[in-house]
Structure formats: structure tokens, C-alpha cells
């Protein structure tokens, strides 16, 4: 007959096995928590870099829009200056007794021909007579062209968009009429 080990020795052996498994489980959980913390830190860094990339992209788009709007403004100012110079040349020619004297049908015909040749009509309202204002507006409506009427107290310098540049505001925007076939 063999004597069995006392029950506390058997319990001690089972307790030691249980503690080894518990220690291994704790080390596995600790390694998982460290791996997850590293992954969270990596993802937070990636999110920060992506936010920075979006900010850079949005800033570049804002700068591009600002530059384009300045370019359009400069183009409109140049067109207004050219028209003003053309009008001054006509006034000088009229004062010297040249063609277009009398301001009648010849001026209306020249206005119609000029407006038809243009893709966009920009009128500086401070430089137009009341009759010319309404003729240009009517011509734009009849020909289906876009007409922009701008009020400007003085000619702005091309690169002077600062606080000392004169204020320019849009008086009226007359879009080209849409073709509606009924």
C-alpha cells in the first residue's frame, strides 16, 4: 500500500502551477497594453501630420484664390483704363473736329461695334455719361454679354492693394441672359 502525499503538499503544487500561469498571463497582458499604447501614439502622430497637411493645402488654396481675384481685379482695371483712353482719344478727336463729332448715331454705332467685339463689358461708371450708361446696359442685354459696372473714385495702382489704395466697389453685375427656348 502506498501512502498518498498529504493534501497540503498537493495543494501547494497546484498553487505553484496556478501562480506560474498567472504570471505568464500578466506578462502577456502587459505586452499587449504596451503594444496598444505604441499603436495609439503612432496613430495620434499620423493624425497630427494629416491635420498639418490639410492646413497647408487649405492655406495654399486660399493664397491661390486671393492671387486669382487680384489678377481679375487688375485685368478689369486695365480694361477700364483702355476704355477710358479710347474715350479720351475720341473726345480729343471730336474737339479737333474729327469723326464722331456731334455725339449722335456715330457714337451709338461705335459703342455697339465695340461691345459686340468684347467677351466681357466692364464700365467704370464714373467715366460714363448717363446716356452711355443706359446704352451699354441695353447693348449687353441685347447681345447676351456679361456687363460689369464698377465705381472707382481714382485709378488704383496695379500693385497697390493696401490700405492706401482707393476703394473700388461693384455697382452692378448684369449676367448674360440665359437662352430659354419655350
Descriptive tags:
3 strands, single chain, 182 residues, 10% strand, 3-stranded mixed sheet, mainly alpha
How would the global form be characterised?
A: rod-shaped
**How would you spell out the order of helices and strands?**
HHEHEE
- Report the mean per-residue pLDDT as an integer: 74
Based on CA atoms alone, the radius of gyration comes out at 40 Å
Question: Can you count the beta strands?
Answer: 3
Span of the ends, CA to CA: 115 Å
Helix content: 55-70%
Number of helices: 3
Largest sheet report: 3 strands, mixed
Q: Point out poorly predicted stretches.
A: 98-103, 153-171
Beta percentage is 5-15%
Structural class: mainly alpha
Major beta sheet, strand line-up: 1-2-3
3D structure, described in words:
The protein is mainly alpha-helical and 182 residues long. It is 64% helix and 10% strand. It is built from 3 helices and 3 strands. It has helices at 7-95, 105-117, 130-143, and strands spanning 120-124, 146-152, 168-174. The chain has a 3-stranded mixed β-sheet. Strand 1 (120-124), helix 3 (130-143) and strand 2 form a beta-alpha-beta unit. The longest helix is centred in the first third of the chain and has 89 residues, at 7-95. It is rod-shaped, with a radius of gyration of 40 Å. The termini are far apart. The model is unreliable at 98-103 and 153-171 (pLDDT under 50).
